UniProtKB/TrEMBL annotation:
Belongs to the glycosyl hydrolase 35 family. PANTHER family: BETA-GALACTOSIDASE RELATED (PTHR23421). Keywords: Glycosidase, Hydrolase. The keyword Hydrolase applies. Residues 507-567 form the Beta-galactosidase galactose-binding domain. Residues 10-323 form the Glycoside hydrolase 35 catalytic domain. One of its GO terms (molecular function) is beta-galactosidase activity. This is Beta-galactosidase. It catalyses: Hydrolysis of terminal non-reducing beta-D-galactose residues in beta-D-galactosides. It comes from Paenibacillus yanchengensis.
Length: 590
């Protein structure tokens, strides 16, 4: 049993002064087999604590059905950190941001049109309580007051950036305390007046989030909180990437200089991120006001890169830590092997239009329903209606699409309608007699994770028009793609015909095999030259999205997702590929 508290401006662990030097590693962005490797590197870098968010949507994917296994085994991650010799900070607030889908909130909340998020709205609080009833008893034995490694927990995340409902914040605090959480509680906010005013509550330690100007940030915090420890709960030493943007980097020397300032000011720190990892599956978030989804890689230009290798930033940061808190000689775990497995031909395919009834669940309604109203969280929704003829030519309007619709007339591709894309050309078409079938494949590219536009329903949110006339009478297929084993593939090419792909821009699944002769597979990276946009599956595991728009060029595949022998590769391509070949290389390209 240990105690962690503060007296004046000093943190105390078992009544001994301690400076918290923490790094964020999200267990849900790293395969479990690599948790120990990443945590050992954190410890070797001179850190004494690991911090992690807890995403509600991962642990309660369906209301009342909980998941704490595999990559969701939070308890095992915390126990592994303890074995390595690290303290743990846990941030289990209902909302986490984290560039994670819907900021960690479960999508099923949006099936209730009246739901109000992140305030004292009892139906929302009831859902939080049900989640806490399952989550917090799992954490209680791991608190330092019960002999575990957890020294502190967060109440809500950057709440002052969203609201100022103190009744709500106190409710969450009391909900944690009455479920046995008796370690240090804190809040974290940006160092602006309105953020600190909105996010702080009486009796709870406030921390600040910033990437630079720590002296100004601490001074601002001192206007609201005096004679308490100074801590940067999120020291943004890198940044994340959106599709269609440049890859973000930050110089190692700049990060080291800012960390030096934090220590000179007697501050504690949590690196956000120490190791970013990967947004596997459909869990990437997005930002507004112009809708911008986050890429699959969460490399973050962190001290450990996406595949867990130390970067120049790792060594620069360690040197600063060593200056203030002398370290033992550096000892790192053995490097994890990387291998280029070469080129694989995907010799089987299954066009989406021909298998809708086999892989999708059909619903019929007068008007298009949102993904949430259809009981779907992630993936794609297929909408289809009949347009009678003859009729004059009018532009096709979706009111409104979330987030990206590929449009087909009688199964022929005619264009894309995408959320918040400026100067997007209008789609118009002539309807042949006696009419034509209009189809829309709508992709949820990630729910908003930050800001006032958090309520982000997906699919078609209101209706579809030709000119001013709404179209009614819709068939809808939910395509969550949570199981690709039931896709009826057919052989479409052989060794003498490796180009036999469908270049008509119809959505198609492709399948092939990667054979690994080695007894132990190595990490590898998938390169998709000639492919346009879609989703990657490795042995049934959803690796994430790809898009030729960049900036991401390769896709990290941890070795534990592979096996010795035959590995199934499935690619869902929304548009087209120049050749049904993919290449496995031994290093990332950013």
């Amino acid at each position: 049993m240990a105690t962690f508290h503060y007296e004046g401006e000093q943190f105390l662990l078992d009544n001994e002064p301690i400076t918290i030097i923490s790094g964020a590693i999200h267990y849900f962005r790293v395969v479990p087999q690599y948790w120990r490797d990443r945590l050992l590197k954190l410890k070797a870098g001179g850190f004494n604590t690991v911090e992690t968010y807890v995403p509600w949507n991962l642990h309660e994917p369906q209301e009342g059905k909980f998941n704490f296994e595999g990559i969701a085994d939070l308890e095992q991650f915390i126990k592994t950190a303890e074995e390595v010799g690290l303290h743990v900070i846990v941030r289990p607030s209902p909302y986490i941001c984290a560039e994670w889908e819907f900021g960690g909130l479960p999508a099923w909340l949006l099936a209730d049109s009246d739901m109000v998020l992140r305030c004292f709205y009892q139906p929302f609080l009831d859902k939080v309580d049900a989640y806490f009833d399952e989550l917090l008893p799992r954490l209680e034995p791991l608190l330092c007051t019960n002999g575990g490694p957890i020294i502190a927990m967060q109440i809500e995340n950057e709440y002052g950036s969203y609201g100022n409902d103190k009744q709500y914040l106190n409710y969450v605090k009391d909900s944690m305390i009455k479920r046995g959480v008796d370690v240090l509680l804190f809040t974290s906010d940006g160092p602006d007046h309105h953020m600190l005013q909105g996010g702080m509550i009486d009796g709870i330690l406030e921390t600040v989030n910033l990437g630079s100007r720590a002296e100004q940030g601490f001074a601002q915090l001192a206007l609201y909180q005096q004679n308490k420890p100074k801590m940067v709960m999120e020291f943004w030493n890198g940044w994340f990437d959106h599709w269609r943007e440049e890859h973000h980097t930050r110089e190692a020397d700049d990060v080291a200089a800012e960390l030096d300032i934090i220590f000179k000011l007697n501050g504690s720190v949590n690196f956000y991120m120490f190791h970013g990892g990967t947004n596997f599956g459909f869990y990437n978030g997005a930002n507004n006001p112009k809708y911008s989804p986050t890429v699959t890689s969460y490399d973050y230009d962190a001290p450990l890169n996406e595949c867990g290798e130390p970067t120049e930033k790792f060594y620069a940061v360690r040197d600063v830590i060593n200056k203030y808190f002398p370290l033992e000689p550096l000892v790192l775990p053995e490097p994890i092997a990387k291998k280029a497995y070469g080129t694989v031909t995907l010799q089987e395919s299954a066009p989406l239009f021909s298998i809708l009834d086999q892989i999708g669940t059909k619903t019929t309604a007068a008007y298009p329903l949102t993904m949430e109203k259809l009981g779907q969280d992630y993936g794609f929704t297929f909408y289809q209606t009949f347009v009678p003829a003859p009729r004059d030519t009018y532009p096709l309007e979706i009111q409104e699409v979330r987030d990206r619709a590929t449009v087909y007339l009688d199964e022929e591709y005619i264009g894309v309608i995408e959320r918040d894309v400026e100067d997007e050309p209008k789609i118009t078409f002539d309807t042949p007699a006696p009419g034509a079938t209009l189809s829309l494949l709508v992709e949820n590219m990630g729910r908003t994770n930050y800001g006032p536009l958090l309520r982000d329903c997906k699919g078609i949110t209101e209706g579809v028009r030709l000119g001013n006339q709404f179209l009614y009478g819709w068939d809808m297929y939910t395509l969550p793609l949570d199981n690709v084993t039931n896709i009826p593939f057919q052989q479409t090419m052989d060794d003498t015909n490796i180009i036999g792909v469908d270049n008509t821009k119809r959505p198609t699944f492709y399948r092939g095999s990667l054979h690994i002769a080695d007894a132990e597979p190595a990490d590898t990276f998938l390169k998709l030259e000639g492919w346009t946009k879609g989703v990657i599956f490795i042995n049934g595991f959803n690796l994430g999205r790809y898009w030729s728009e960049g900036p991401q060029k390769t896709y990290y595949i941890p070795a534990p997702l592979l096996r010795s022998g035959t590995n199934e590769i499935v690619i869902f391509e929304i548009h087209e590929t120049t050749a049904a070949t993919i290449t496995f290389v031994d290093q990332a390209e950013l």
